[in-house]
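question for whoever is on the cluster today: can someone run the full assembly for these? two chains, 1057 residues total. i dont have access anymore since they changed the login thing
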Amino acid sequence: MKEYQTITEISGPLVHVETDEPIGYNEIVEIETGDGETRRGQVLDSSSDHVAIQVFEGTEGIDMDSSVRFLGETMKMPVTEDLLGRVLDGSGNPIDGGPDIVPDERRDIVGAAINPYSREYPEDFIQTGVSAIDGMNTLVRGQKLPIFSGSGLPHNDLALQIARQASVPEEEAGEDEDTEFAVIFGAMGITAEEANEFMDDFERTGALERSVVFMNLADDPAVERTVTPRLALTTAEYLAFDKGYHVLVILTDMTNYCEALREIGAAREEVPGRRGYPGYMYTDLAQLYERAGRIKGQEGSITQIPILTMPSDDITHPIPDLTGYITEGQILVDRDLNSQGIQPPIDPLPSLSRLMDDGIGEGLTRGDHGGVSDQLYAAYAQGEDLRDLVNIVGREALSERDNKYLDFAERFEEEFVQQGYGTDRDIDETLDIGWDLLSMLPKEELNRIDEENIAEYYREDVEAEVAAD
Amino acid sequence: MSQATDTTVREDGVIESVSGPVVTAKDLDAKMNDVVYVGEEGLMGEVIEIEGDITTIQVYEETSAVAPGEPVEGTGSPLSVDLGPGMLDSIYDGVQRPLDVLEDKMGSAFLDRGVDAPGIDLEKTWEFTPEVEEGDEVEAGDIVGSVPETPSIDHKVMVPPDYEGGEVVAIESGNFNVEETVAELDNGEEIQMRQEWPVRSARPTEDKQTPTEPLTSGQRILDGLFPLAKGGTAAIPGPFGSGKTVTQQSLAKFADADIVVYIGCGERGNEMTEVIDDFPDLPDPQTGNALMARTCLIANTSNMPVAARESCVYTGITIAEHYRDMGYDVALMADSTSRWAEAMREISSRLEEMPGEEGYPAYLAARLSQFYERAGYFDNINGTEGSISAIGAVSPPGGDFSEPVTQNTLRIVKTFWALDSDLAEKRHFPAIDWNDSYSLYRDQLDPWFVENVAEDWPEQRQWAIDILDEDGELQEVVQLVGKDALPEDQQLTLEVARFIKEAWLQQNALHDVDRYCPPEKTYRILGAIRTFNDEAIDALDAGVPIEEITGIDAAPQLNRIGTTPDDEVDEFVDDLESDIADQLRSLY
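^ ran it for u. tokens below:
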């Protein structure tokens, strides 16, 4: 172990140290302050005579006389199946008062990229029991599907509902019935209250025993947030690809993670990209999100649901923007629907699941799923469009056809999207509600659905009813 | 990356500093763009700056734990690719390491560091058939023979462009591996199937021609409104979720090119997996063989090292040029060039270069134009003609087209397919905005369409454009006063425009039939809509109310032509057109 007392500069989260031996890039460092406290950090920049260190727990109390120890290895996460049921802090130390963790192995937290050739294409439908997701933005095992939300919106309730209800429908479970299901929860900079909400729910539903919780709270050091998701994902990879678990990783809030990246970038005086975020933020985020997936010949899978709050609800802000370019779709939580009292307030129009098409259809969900989904989209989009017009000319000025679409949009929100956080709808129920609504429209309008499906599922009685009104 | 040559090992240097993918070394004797091996693990890198005794290197692999003081070894040769049979049906990373071989060598699904593999299999033998005889004179670039590379493609064995050429003194057919000599020249030059070429320089050609033949894509909006030429360049910009990748993949599947080079540059891992899974099973619409038999994939996903992302477009286009030299039409897709530009930006900022617009390096525009200039319809040095059509996806931040990568790309490319998030939200796919998109090849391609598809192709297209323009203007009025306030003839225009959008411009990439639409069918669908338009105008003139006209049973059938199998289309459309005429005429 190499130890120095040659700090030359301390600025923000960074400490610069003069060295006389080579120090590896990304190596882990311990800094001991005057009052005996130990801080951990990581080498960000290494040259032959000095290094720049990013300190996870903040630089308060570090002075020029503090001693710096280089541990000669990069950051590792101790992994074992016994982590299930445990609560750890943002650096991976237990905070639940339980026994020490005896690791099977210590893994580098940076993680290697999965060889695209070795990946297995995700196509196993996960039923979340939420109609707006299952019906129109289907989640599959091994997908990364973020929730884009805003401050003060109920994204946590939605995430909990998914974590609670997510299941694979019985017919399909078949061969891998014994594969187990685990939840990894990585919190970055969330408030203690939010954290309690999650913990209470985990404990109440008994989910905790199949979960590993990493907590970096709002008052924990910001720089530590850059490590927390990597610890969580390293644990997830171990459970999924070594132990065969189907792992659901919930990361919240990615906005806080990106803020931490920006803080470090600014302290290093890097040339900033858009809105002051570092130019390498895309690559950095990709290194987290791309750790979702399936691998050929392996039982387990990693499904990621990162949550982020869009600053001032702006989807073009760099954080949601770069995320959307990497993830396989997004679920949008909408402020207007929320104020209408719709639970969960998911706006299906800007939401998207890129892996949906291969996870649905005959033999997977139901033959009419794709058509119903497309038609619901198109019809709701048309209804939404007409709402602007109604505000100007009033309903009477619109044609009968337009009025039908307006009614459709209304009922769609109230019956399809609205369901409450406690309701678990299976896929048949979701699609049947879809047909109830689509049957309000004349048959000829259903141009996205195959004729056989219309013949099988279209409900003449509903159309007649509407026509009679 | 080319492994096979023995390169003289130069004087080694030592690492001076490490910052992410950028490493500096002291006392290394190397030229610009030389390949070097960095550190104890021998990570591959490339020299990008030399200043005094300090050499700056971009490393193609992850640099965690690499420390100053470790050795750097020069190879003395620039970053090159191996060219030869075996590139098709392959999947490479950004420096031409075959990913399937890496999986074997690493024994893991995760990409390890410091493992290398040649771009083409050096052991495999191919059946060589000479195309020249002993005594023939050959020059640089000339074809001396061929090997059946895949069921679709004969790989031509050529005299390397940097050879002098001369009289063939020995050549015979038989099975050879790629390193064995298949032909000898009187000046002592030996020709193997394998060539090596530095990725950053274009392979030589004789001349560039003006393209006159379309690269038909089977996508109605592209062939019908914004066609791309063989040898042309196109950009597809769009915000996330607007369908860039689906459009690129449709082109890779259905474009009538001989060879497809698909570069996944900084994109999603699962997307590449989808291509790897799908292409071996999908038939090539031209030959009926598996699509992979004409495809070379380059996958450098977003979480793979950023420096290799910078090089992957060059690797791809060099491979494309090799097939062009054989006289093939090559289509190259780069998804996405923005990630490539960002890789340049990332490296540039680590070099502490003075940034240009939005932090991109000042040479962004120059690099983009160099890349697109390597596309074109060429007279090759061996007398054949070949083309490279380059199609680059662009991912503008926030979907804002005014950003530097989109703008600099638009200054170069001649076809612009603008993707629109509003259309995507309405599930109007392909979400290509017909108002903003353009193709500067339209006029030079019209003679081909007139000769091969239909005489009134240009005129019918213009009719569709006029209707869509008028629709755009009317929609603004409708937003204010509602549709029913418009005169009946304008209401009809709206209705016809709706059919153009729903039945013609929209195309379902997931439907077995609709995903590929030959130009003839593209023409027939639009023709049927036009028939409806013309008959409806007559009916309106005769005093039939608009509701009755749009309410005829036959009208919604227009939306079903797209999903009608190709061999039934003519009959279906003939019947439909006469139904439309009968039903409308019966109203007056």
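summary bc i know u wont read the tokens: Chain A touches chain B through 84 residues (CB under 8 Å). The radius of gyration of chain A is 25 Å.
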